[in-house]
Amino acid sequence: MTETMQLPVANWKLARTLVEPMYLDKKLYTGEPRLEHADGMVEILKTIGSDEELFTAAYLFSVEDFVDDKDEWITKTFGKSVLQLVNDLQNLMALSKRARANNKESGAAYQPEALRRMLLAMCHDLRVVLLRLASRLQTLRWFVKSGASGAEEYGRETLALYSPLANRLGIWQIKWELEDLSLRFTEPAMYAEISRELDETREQRLEFMRDCVENCKIFLKAAGIEADVSGRPKHIYSIWKKMVRKNLRFDQLFDIRAMRIIVDSVERCYEVLSIIQEHFTVLGKEYDDYIANPKPNGYQSLHTVVTDASGRPVEIQIRTRAMHDFAELGVAAHWRYKETGNSNKSKGADAEEQRVAWLRQILAWRSDVDMPEKPGLEDDHVYALTPQGRVVELQSGATPIDFAYAVHTQLGHRCRGAKVNGVMVPLNTKLQTGQTVEITAAKTGGPSRDWLNPELGFAASARTRTKVRQWFNAQTLAEQVAGGRERLDKELARLGKTAVKLEDLARRLGYDSVDDLCVAVAKEELGSKAIEQAVQPQVETVQEPEVIVHNAKSSKSNVLVVGIDSLMTQLARCCHPAPPDEIVGFVTRGRGVTIHRIDCPNARSLSQNEHERMIEVSWGTPSVDAVYPVDLYVVARDRMGLIKDITEVFMREKQNLIGMNTCNVKGDAHMRFSIEIRSSQELNRTLTALREIKGVMSARRA
């Protein structure tokens, strides 16, 4: 008979017994005894609920300093779930310590929202958030008890990061205490003043609220109304916050004490309001009907202020269950409009809300909810830290190169190496949430073309690849401008026309700038013959502008969106791309994907302003009869028969002319032709033939 293997089980009492000799006389960096900190954490967690694994992990929070193979020891003794909680808690503590140190050294701006999302993203088991909140509350209690230095720094971090998180989870008691203790350290004078103004202890305030709630229940029961009635005294931090926000004195506050009454219908809300007005003295000016006139964010409730026999004011909120749920969990949730000012959510907010919602379930139905395989939930973002403590939000799979470009484009261009948590790593290393990334940059230089190779894995972000392409395009353009300028100067010197203004020459040849002219010369779109004709004295003729326009339907674009089949595409009219032009796609609203040439000015503008809507595309296999519309721009000396000679080129190449616009400028004909072509080779033949026509100075793709 074989023995059944005994699986390790979490046992917090055993954990305390084992760590007690380890923690003996050992203190944390705050000066608090380690065992005292663990005991305090467990007592706080007991007020939330009963979870053996959480209590066990609380006692093991510092065991890695005393056990060589901590992971194996915890797993064998208490199980993998406890090990995961302990590891996550240590990671969160390390993150907090690192961010606090970085901010202190660099004076960097604090990023509470990004840090909260980062904190949640690091949690494999979301219950660790409860451990972290309990640990922070115990630390603040220790500062109150000991009067040790450093409390103000912890208080500021708590107000920015931890108390809003407790608020989102609905752990009100912990939230209130975190805020009150933090205010005590960050604004000691105001804390002391408000405490004196309250003129009673917190227990006395709680007792007063219990009496108000019981009296209200009696009145409602006598009227045959079923309702949930709850009350709370406003805590010191909330009083201070309202005084600051509305610039009020203490004696101008009427909601220091508040009751909430929840009923089953809107009609009942107004019935309850009538009953309250019968039994209490109402302050007439302090009444708001947010049911008939909801707040802009959708919040609904009746608010009134009454006084008791002693003249003490009590704010009363009356709402339905649906209104209450909406206020707590909907778009008007308390934490949204109080903490963020109802601002738009950032990219990682949806994943954060999933985590918060799941953790709410844990708190309410811990015994009924099955633990998911990955309680942390999958997120498509990675949160990394700069050495200065700034949180950088990246997409999943991001590398140090993506990180560098997210910090600053120039840092990305000059990136040559990276350290992750102080260790040199290859530039295609996949980053993980919580890591600190330090970029080594050259003083000059640019990116490598290898970064564009998807097989090498240097750039996970489309934005990064776009930035790299833009750099190489800019380099190519600069080289073409320099080379074309040199060739143009030599040609003008040969012709003895060095005094010619290049701006005038560019305009005469139909180019918007000297740089565009130089690029055309570098690409051999302009020959010596065209330049020679353009610099000859002009003979002015007077001729009425001629405009001829034909319309024709362009053929369907034959483009494949990378990774997606059968997606509607259309060719951009601004640049008329055709194979084998390098192209990029822009996701339009309601019209599928618009295809631009990669050097199109509109595409560059869209990439800078709305890069998240740019996608990779490629030409598909063209059909036999596939044609693409392109625009040609021709500048020539005006003469009889010029249009006939040009259209004969199109006829010879069997190209359909679908539009033409021509005008005369000081004896030169400036013409734009819209034709349909089958390939870029065909287009090149056409442009070459046009340049050979007598009098043509320039022929190029528009």
What's the arrangement of secondary structure elements?
Blueprint (H helix, E strand, L loop, with lengths): L11 H12 L10 H13 L5 H8 L10 H9 L1 H27 L5 H10 L6 H19 L4 H19 L2 H15 L1 H11 L3 H21 L5 E6 L2 H11 L10 E7 L2 H14 L1 E9 L12 E6 L5 E8 H9 L4 H6 L9 H17 L15 E5 L5 E5 L4 H8 L1 H5 L1 E6 L2 E3 L11 E5 L20 H34 L6 H7 L5 H9 L5 H7 L11 E3 L10 E3 L7 E3 L11 E5 L5 E5 L3 H9 L4 E2 L1 E3 L8 E10 L4 H11 L3 E10 L2 E10 L2 H12 L4 E6 L1
Parallel strand pairs: 2-5, 13-15
Antiparallel strand pairs: 1-2, 3-4, 4-5, 6-7, 8-9, 8-10, 11-19, 12-17, 14-15, 14-16, 18-20, 18-21, 19-20
Describe this structure in words.
- The structure is a single chain.
- This protein is 46% helix and 17% strand.
- By secondary structure, the protein is of the alpha+beta class.
- It has a five-stranded mixed sheet with strand order 1-2-5-4-3. Strands 11-19-20-18-21 form a five-stranded antiparallel sheet.
- A hairpin with a 5-residue loop joins strand 4 (302-307) and strand 5.
- The relative contact order is 0.06.
- The model is unreliable at 365-378 and 539-556 (pLDDT under 50).
Give descriptors for this structure.
5 domains; alpha+beta; Hypothetical protein af1432; Ubiquitin-like (UB roll); five-stranded mixed β-sheet; five-stranded antiparallel β-sheet; 25 helices
